[in-house]
Amino acid sequence: MQYSFNSNTRLEEHFKINVKKFPKKIAISCNGFDLTYEELDQKSNVIAHLVKDNLEEDTQYVGLSMNRGVEMIISILGILKAGAAYIPIDPSNNPIDRIKLCLSEVNLKLLITDRTIDIKNVKTLLVKRDTFSEPTQGSIKGITPHKKNEFAYAIFTSGTTGIPKAVPIKHDNVVSLFHNSTKIFDFNEDDIWTLFHSFAFDFSVWEIWGALLLGGKLEIVSNNVAKNIARFRRFLTDKKITVLNQTPSAFYNLIKTDQSKESKIESLRYVILGGEKLDLKLLEPWINKYADSSKLFSGYGTTETTVFTSFKYLNAKDLTKNTDLSPLGKAIPGSDMVLIGEDDQIATQGELYISGEGLSDGYLNRADLNKKKFISKIVLGKTVKYYRTGDLAFEKNGELYCLGRADSQVKFNGYRIELEGIESIIMSHPKVMRSIVFVDNTFAYPRLLSFLEPFDKVSAESESQILSEVKNLAESLLPFYMVPSEFMIIDKIPLTINGKTNHKKLLELS
Fold it and tell me: Is pLDDT at 497 greater than 50 in this prediction?
């Protein structure tokens, strides 16, 4: 069924359409607890009234820090119904100091959470399952918000200063994503989607709204299942998942487990990869096994351009080509991707710039950075606003292929992180003069390593103390995926003959 989207309709309004169409159909499920579309609608009304009663009239954003579960989805819908936008801060990924840093960065005054948190100048609303246990007038009645904010959410990405930056995305950005994607995929109301990723990772936007906007079912994957590949494969089979979304790193592990099984995950219709550079050679076993039963796609995009701006269908033909290339595919309808060369002109190789219906207006409270990253260029006589991704690519036969990064930003385990941001936090320690952080890919799994150069030579006893203090500092101010797995003190950061950091030499020291 081809779903019709009205770009002027908000996300919760599209959801309401499905409530009327499928009131008794299960909308979300987690650990055996199910909610129908009608129940999800009523329970999110409770949150909407709570938010409205505690929201200052001119406030656009509400923080959301909750564990993965049905209450999280209920709260997202409730915030939107109240006319506000949600800012997700995953408590399992972020220490309390990082949460405080994120809240202060965007001056948040209201936080919905499932735990007791005491943060100065921030009002918290504690939401648990018993919040919705008894029917209330608020659960039945709809809500008329003070003012409907045009933004749906703002997701934090890391920055070179170590300070997170929030990317606000509008309702019509997300609606356009699904309107244009349904020209590529034939999603329908019978699909069962997984919510595998953190709701603070923009991949979750694709997972959550892919199900709820199209009348499908969202199966929330618990952390325990997500971390156990064998259990996760059984989950996919038992829950009859039809749409699976994965970062390549996670999917490579699933492929290994799946290869030990003769049977297939029969229900799968689509597997959509995103968040990292692809290694086509590692996909070969899956492509060969599932060629006749499910379709494998690679997606490319950024938080700043609303999750995905291009897709590439991967099949056996791609395995006969240069498998060292990482394909980005072609831009989806409504998006434009151009390469800008060293002469600042459109080229067949260069930095990737993106414009179109998914483009954000810019980072919250970052005017100087917006001037550098969100720029206007004249293309074919028209002024077009682009996001400068920092990704390098080249064009071949009408498709784009990844060449790496133009700066220190890297993809690590599905997250987009700034190495300089981690280095900045580490160098805030008074005894650390320099810090070099990089990704080591020489093992079966990538590692994030940090090398420290102290101001003065230190004794073995002092070295142990400094490393402990630096590790505690990183863990208190950085999300878990940005904390290096190893910290090492060396007398001097080695350099190449050209005066650049000698990463090869550092690797030999690890």
Answer: no
CB 165 within 8 A of CB 159: yes
Nearest partner of 220 among 39, 44, 29, judged by Cα? 29
pLDDT at 345 exceeding the cut of 80: yes
DSSP 291: T
Let me know: does 207 contact 191? Beta carbons within 8 Å. Answer: no
| 29-69 pLDDT, tens digit each | 999 999 999 999 999 999 999 999 998 877 899 999 999 99
CA–CA dist 117, 83 (Å, integer): 24
Tokens of 119: 């943060």
Distance CA 493, CA 326 (A): 32
Q: Are the C-beta atoms of 62 and 55 separated by less than 8 Å? A: yes
Q: What is the dihedral of CA 188, 329, 10, 89, to 10 degrees?
A: 100
By residue count, the chain amounts to: 510
Would you say 152 and 169 are in contact if contact means Cβ atoms under 8 Å apart?
yes
d(CA 184, CA 172) in angstroms, rounded, equals 19
**What residues contact residue 42 under an 8 Å CB cut-off, 6+ apart?**
135, 139, 140
Task: Tell me the sheet residues that pair with 498.
Answer: none
Q: Where in the chain is the domain with CATH 2.30.38.10?
A: 333-405
Q: d(Cα 143, Cα 49) in Å, to the nearest integer?
A: 7
Q: What is the pTM of this model?
A: 0.85
Strand 151-157 and strand 165-170: the pairing is antiparallel
Instruction: Tell me the pairing of strands 26-30 and 33-36.
Output: antiparallel
**Which CATH architecture fits 409-509?**
2-Layer Sandwich (3.30)
* Tokens linked to 492: 């001097």
Token code pair at residue 311: 């897709």
Closest C-alpha among 10, 64, 26 to residue 199: 64
Tell me where in the chain the CATH 3.30.300.30 domain(s) lie. Answer: 409-509
3-state secondary structure of 364: coil
Angstrom CA distances, 40 to 37, 70, 132, 187, 202, stand at 5, 9, 10, 21, 22
Dig out the tokens for 431 from the structure. 């005894």
Q: Helix, strand, or coil here: 504?
A: helix
Q: Cα separation of 100 and 396, whole Å?
A: 46
User: Within a 10 A sphere around the Cβ of 31, how many other Cβ atoms?
Assistant: 11
Closest CA to 174 of 1, 388, 3, 7: 7
Looking at domain 333-405, its CATH architecture is Roll (2.30)
Q: What whole-number distance in Å separates Cα of residue 66 and Cα of residue 291?
A: 38
Distance, CA of 94 to CA of 113 (rounded, Å): 14
- Tokens at residue 246, please? 């994965």
SS3 of 127-169: CCHHHHCCCCHHHHCCCCCCCCCCEEEEEEECCCCCCCEEEEE
Average pLDDT over residues 159-188: 89
Cα atoms found within 13 Å of the Cα of residue 488, Cβ hemisphere only = 18
